[in-house]
Amino acid sequence: MADTVIVDARGLSCPQPVLETKKALEKLSGGRVEVLVDTVTSRENVARFGGSRGWKVEKEEREDGFCVVLAK
Amino acid sequence: MKGFNNLLMSRFGPAITGGVVGALAALLVYFGNPGNMGICVACFTRDIAGALGLHRAGVVQYLRPEIPGFILGSFLAAFLAKEYRPRSGSSPIVRFFLGFFAMIGALIFLGCPWRAYARLAGGDWNALAGIGGLIVGIGIGIVFLWRGFSLGKADKSPKWAGAVMPLAALALLALLFLRPLFGPEGTGPVFFSASGPGAAVAPVAIALGAGLLIGWMAQKSRFCTVGAIRDLIMVKDPHLFNGVAAFLVAAFAVNYLLGQFKPGFESQPVAHVNQMWNFLGMVLSGLAFTLAGGCPGRQVIMSGEGDGDSAIFVLGMLVGAGFAHNFSLASSPAGVTAYGMTATAIGMVFCLAVGFLFRIKMD
User: Fold this and answer.
1) Domain of A34?
2) How many angstroms separate the CA atoms of A16 and A24, rounded?
3) Residue contact B154–A13, C-beta within 8 A
4) Probe site for chain A from B9, B231, B363 (most A CB atoms < 10 A)
5) Which has the closest alpha carbon to A5: B222, B9, A22?
């Protein structure tokens, strides 16, 4: 898991969680990215964005919100 | 119910919500709301400000039940789905003034984005200048977002913090039903227009029912008329834009069937023909909405699900509406005022300063 990139987008308003995810994904050709968010809205927005860019999407519930795991 | 909720949360959600909001916007005009103003978040917030005596423009004072309906519908939807999550702390005072100036811009044009689309769907071509301004305002906001603009992170708030707006919504409904009169000279403290747009009202049960339904649906689907254009431009995502398209189609269809579609520029209800200021007013609004993260409808909906920063934005709109009329900033069918033009310029300076100065560094 050493090469997992973590994006902490908790507490950010729309559309910043998606923009931070976009920035992270653009630096990578593959691997695993974990995006931390704290609202269902952000979780769905990030998941939809990741999926549209060809990443495999999994959503996990965390104590402090959600984690969207993107893998390619 | 579960199937309906799942549908609203699917990729069809914004389009279904937009269709329902558009149809209801046209129907509420039929039931008595002002022309092309079946639903307008800015105008209705302004009417509420007037009803509460925050301004004394006698023709636009009414406790519109649609707005508390949005808040309560959203609250119920979020609470029952365990999505109710009180949060705040992302530059609240800046958001207050973004709401304030968003309202000033909206009252220069005479409508929020929802009403801009409703006006277009009713044949009011003046709305085109406003929608053009809205797109430009959102575009300016996008430039700031690309540069890393952020009002900072919100934090979790105590559980009851998010209950304040739903309770305030209940209080507004109580004032609407009780109509207390204990002000000086036997009028007020709640005012109701005897003529003008504030006296054009749909029956309370229909208006409140529509508000609750829209609040519920918009909470589930995240319907947002500013996010629609923003996401389309920024990440080529038409998800929310489908909602705006459906709004326009549904509102036009219902207007047409009810004989409410009256194309033209002149003599449109609660509208003026100064296209430059229709445009500039909405540039200001579009920028303020984009910096705050969503259209006024979305801000009201989020305030119902516990977002304290959105609640502050909505209160900024309420106070902005008071100032807009007390300081003669708001336009009227007669046109734009010199004070309104000055206030638009001041608002632009404020929003541009916020856009340039607010950034956070992500690790």
Assistant:
1) 4-71
2) 12
3) yes
4) B231
5) A22
Site of tokens 């990139």: A5
Structure tokens at B128: 């085109």
Which stretch of DSSP H or E encloses residue A32? strand A32-37
Beta carbons of A39 and B85 less than 8 angstroms apart? yes
pLDDT digits 0-9 by tens, B97-139: 999 999 999 999 999 999 999 999 999 999 999 999 999 999 9
**Two tokens, residue B34:** 């002002």
Of B85, B245, B106, B225, residue with least CA distance to B158: B85
B267 in a structural domain: yes
Q: How many domains does chain B have?
A: 1
Q: Is residue B363 part of a domain?
A: no
In tens, the pLDDT along B29-63 reads 999 999 999 999 999 999 999 999 999 999 999 99
Task: Judge contact between B295 and B230, C-beta under 8 A.
Answer: no
Domain with residue A17: its CATH number is 3.30.110.40
Residue B229 maps to a domain: yes
Q: How much is the pTM?
A: 0.96
Do the chains contact at B227 and A11, CB–CB below 8 Å?
no
Above 0.95 for ipTM, yes or no? no
Q: Which of A41, A44, A46, A57 to mutate to test the interface with B (most CBs of B within 10 A)?
A: A41
Chain B residues in contact with chain A using a Cβ-Cβ cutoff of 8 Å: 9, 11, 83, 85, 87, 89-90, 145, 150-156, 222, 224, 227, 230-231, 234-235, 237, 239, 292-294, 309, 362-363
Single-letter amino acid, residue B185? E
**Which chain A residues contact residue B292 at CB under 8 A?**
13
H/E stretch holding A7 reads strand A4-8
- In single-letter form, the type of residue at position B282 comes to M
* Chain A residue numbers touching B152 (CB-CB < 8 A): 11
Tell me which chain B residues have a C-beta less than 8 angstroms from the C-beta of A27: none
- As for how many domains chain A has, the answer is 1
Res B73 pLDDT > 90: yes
C-beta neighbour count of B181 within 10 angstroms: 12
Q: Is residue B260 part of a domain?
A: yes
- The encoded tokens of residue A21 equal 């995810």
What phi and psi values does residue B30 have, to the nearest 5 degrees?
Answer: -60, -40
Q: Answer for the pair B99, B252: CB distance below 8 angstroms, yes or no.
A: no
Range of the domain at B231: 2-357
Please give the positions of A annotated as active site.
Answer: 14
